[in-house]
Automatic annotation (TrEMBL):
<dbReference type="InterPro" id="IPR001128">
    <property type="entry name" value="Cyt_P450"/>
</dbReference>
<dbReference type="GO" id="GO:0006082">
    <property type="term" value="P:organic acid metabolic process"/>
</dbReference>
<dbReference type="InterPro" id="IPR002401">
    <property type="entry name" value="Cyt_P450_E_grp-I"/>
</dbReference>
<protein>
    <submittedName>
        <fullName>Cytochrome p450 2c8</fullName>
    </submittedName>
</protein>
<dbReference type="InterPro" id="IPR050182">
    <property type="entry name" value="Cytochrome_P450_fam2"/>
</dbReference>
<dbReference type="GO" id="GO:0008395">
    <property type="term" value="F:steroid hydroxylase activity"/>
</dbReference>
<dbReference type="GO" id="GO:0020037">
    <property type="term" value="F:heme binding"/>
</dbReference>
<feature type="region of interest" description="Disordered">
    <location>
        <begin position="1"/>
        <end position="42"/>
    </location>
</feature>
<dbReference type="InterPro" id="IPR036396">
    <property type="entry name" value="Cyt_P450_sf"/>
</dbReference>
<keyword id="KW-0479">Metal-binding</keyword>
<dbReference type="GO" id="GO:0016712">
    <property type="term" value="F:oxidoreductase activity, acting on paired donors, with incorporation or reduction of molecular oxygen, reduced flavin or flavoprotein as one donor, and incorporation of one atom of oxygen"/>
</dbReference>
<dbReference type="GO" id="GO:0005506">
    <property type="term" value="F:iron ion binding"/>
</dbReference>
<feature type="compositionally biased region" description="Basic residues">
    <location>
        <begin position="1"/>
        <end position="40"/>
    </location>
</feature>
<dbReference type="GO" id="GO:0006805">
    <property type="term" value="P:xenobiotic metabolic process"/>
</dbReference>
<dbReference type="GO" id="GO:0005737">
    <property type="term" value="C:cytoplasm"/>
</dbReference>
<keyword id="KW-0408">Iron</keyword>
<comment type="similarity">
    <text>Belongs to the cytochrome P450 family.</text>
</comment>
Length: 338
């Protein structure tokens, strides 16, 4: 009996040891897996950390978000934007700009019905312009970009442009050229000495000149000299007026450590950050072309190949009511119809 009990105890001990070994192996595997999911890569002068997996990424964003607020020391942030604006600032200055601009955009109607009215007004203008083509070939890419720009500029400057305005067409062409130059000069991010290459091989100087002209154009849209700033006034027309009023208010309060100045205002403008315009316009152009395709074929054609009859038929199918004849309230006539 005693020998049997001893054998049973020995077997139990062996089982416990095996279980402990299995647990240790599992822990080692988990640790190895985590280590493999965190990797560091040397990309030119930058040492980057790559995170793989939902758990690690969520942990980094939620628990260690303050360590992710930095900006890379590349030529885009350093030379072009000069660490100004929401996308280039970091730390407390970024938090100040972000909280102020978010509250300001909500005040001006972003995310509410006021913004929907502005978009519907531009939608009506887009449809009437397409109807006015009378069956002739029409390129709507610039037209859509002008409509998107009008929505953004309406919030920023209370300004609207016609599709044939030379200033807005030149500015949109400058946006396209800027992204082409950024692609061509991407190597400067990893090898900064390339910007001194002879003959402007990586288009560094041309990129600076194009962005300088764009900044001067946007600054002209500000109409800074003709704006009357009253610190006690709480009725704001646009983003620029509110920003300038806040700058004057902080000057009167003698606030020194602040990022709210005219240089950051210019860099924080949505018109200075043309990514929404270029990202939304091709998508909307494609969707409009997709809507106006023929029902008998699967191939879709661009709107330039469509006739006015097809446009009218599609419009009656998708819009039971006639085109909008109202105009958004609260803005002058020059903002809506130039």
């Amino acid at each position: 009996m005693r020998s049997r009990r001893r054998e049973k105890k020995k077997k139990k001990k062996k089982k416990k040891k095996k279980k402990k070994k299995k647990k240790k192996k599992k822990k080692k595997k988990k640790k190895r897996g985590r280590r493999r999911r965190r990797r560091s890569i040397q990309m030119g002068p930058f040492r980057c950390v790559m995170l793989d997996g939902y758990d690690l990424i969520s942990e980094a964003l939620y628990k260690h978000h303050e360590s992710l607020l930095g900006r890379p020391n590349n030529f885009v942030h350093k030379d072009i934007f000069q660490y100004r604006g929401v996308t280039s600032l970091n730390g407390n200055k970024w938090k100040e700009q972000r909280t102020f601009l978010l509250s300001l955009l909500r005040l001006l109607g972003v995310g509410r019905n006021i913004m929907a009215e502005r978009i519907m007004g531009e939608d009506d203008y887009l449809l009437t312009t397409i109807d006015a083509a009378q069956g002739e070939p029409l390129d709507i890419s610039n037209l859509v970009m002008v409509c998107v720009t009008n929505v953004i500029c309406g919030v920023a400057f209370t300004k609207r442009f016609d599709q044939e305005d030379k200033t807005i067409l030149y500015w949109l062409a400058s946006i396209k050229r800027t992204f082409e130059l950024l692609r061509s000069s991407a190597a400067i991010n990893f090898f900064p000495i390339l910007k001194y290459a002879p003959g402007d091989m990586f288009y560094y100087n041309e990129l600076h000149s194009v962005l300088k002209n764009m900044r001067e154009t946007v600054w002209g849209w500000f109409d800074r000299d003709n704006r009357k700033i009253n610190v006690s006034d709480q009725a704001f027309e646009d983003l620029v007026q509110t920003f300038l009023t806040e700058i004057e208010r902080r000057k009167e309060e003698h606030v020194v450590n602040t990022s709210l100045d005219e240089a950051n205002l210019l860099s924080s403008m949505p018109a200075q950050r043309p990514l929404p315009i270029l990202s939304y316009s091709p998508c909307s152009t494609w969707s409009i072309s997709r809507v106006f395709r023929r029902g008998s074929t699967r191939k879709w054609k661009m709107l330039s190949a469509l006739t006015t009859l097809q446009i009218c038929q599609t419009r009656t199918n998708f819009h039971s009511s006639p085109p909008l004849s109202w105009k958004p309230s609260g803005f002058p006539e020059s903002f809506l119809w130039v």
